[in-house]
Amino acid sequence: MGQLDLQELLASTAAEVRPAGPDVIERAVADARRRRGRRLVIVPSLLTVIAAAGLLLVPVVRPAPLVPGGGREPGFPAVTEDFSYLTANARTAPAGRALAVVQYYWWDSVRTVVLGADRDTYRDLDPGLGSASFYGQAVLSPDGTLAAIARGAGQVELVTLRTGKVRTLRLADPSFEAVVYAFTPDGRTLAAGLRTHLSDASQPVLVDVARGTIVPLPLRAVSEFAFSPDGQRIATQSGGLVSISDRSGVVRRSFPALRSEARLGGPNAWSPDGRYLVTVHESGGGSGPAEFAFLPVDPADKGAPAPRSYPAASLLGWRSGSELVLGESTGPGQRVSVVDLVSGREQVVSSITGGAVTAVAAGLLTEAGTRPPGDPDFGPWPSWLWWLLGGGVLVLALVSVALVWVARWAIRVSRRPLSG
Known about the structure:
Radius of gyration: 34 Å
Number of helices: 3
Order of helices and strands: HHEEEEEEEEEEEEEEEEEEEEEEEEEEH
Helix content: 10-25%
Mean pLDDT: 81
Low-confidence stretches: 58-70, 129-133
Largest sheet: 4 strands, antiparallel
Structural class: alpha+beta
Distance between the termini: 54 Å
């Protein structure tokens, strides 16, 4: 291109350029204000939407919780926490082996929670249907790794507490209710029962935990059930009669309880040496003193302890051959104590807030101590709460963006010159 051609091109281009005019500064300032206003709206809006999306995605992408290995020494927290509606479920947020089952009473519903053996974890055993679900009993295997829960329609659930895996066993047709009593000391067999809504007594069965097979026992109207320390004998109660039978249900001995209203002391009623059984007679509807009687399994054995009386207590288990673990009612809560049958010394190991321990992992009690109060672990927040928070932030972001755009529009309208 020659010099003359270049000059002509530049001249024509310059002629097409609009003169700046006297309002060039005002137009530049207005354009800068518009760009700055758009940034002030778009950037915070994008950040808010991103935050809301992150909250909405948390229930989907959050990692699985870390489950403690169980190598620590088990123990009760000195003070347990009251029930929290944010308690995670043992199925979706497993926390490892448990030391106790705690039942909290809220209005007309019961919430069943497992208390961690190795740290202060709380996990709900409810399947997630709220107060409309059937809340049955729950018992723990001796090592605290498995929970058996009685459900409606003749069903029992087995929850593996390290993984959250659930197995449902149907014991009978839906017209029966299931009840769970105890595991054998080796944790391989579960004693359960079937009853109707007309009676608290049940027809007992033995459930093979690994295979899920069910073997009925030829015993009738059983209200209490306990395995011997070697797992080969069974103690049951029917009315005021206590019976000792073998694993096939053949009764070897029967004898009346010392008091007509006394009951066998639960799944851990056998003494660790297998010599005697504990019965408990509660006075005052469970609010008065409880009399503990020690019945020899062998009538010739005269070495059973003399009866003891404890305030509003139930038998939870044994720490040693001469130490009982008791749950003592304290009004709205409970305290867990260890009582020495020889010296009479009592040690409070835990105070339960707003609930009561109803079952323990019997095999862990011998080494269970007391942990100082720590930060309770209720598990990750439920998904519905994350969705609620994320949705709320998103709605707030959209409303904020709309308000800012309306405000900017109103400012532009107010700055327009009046015509005429």
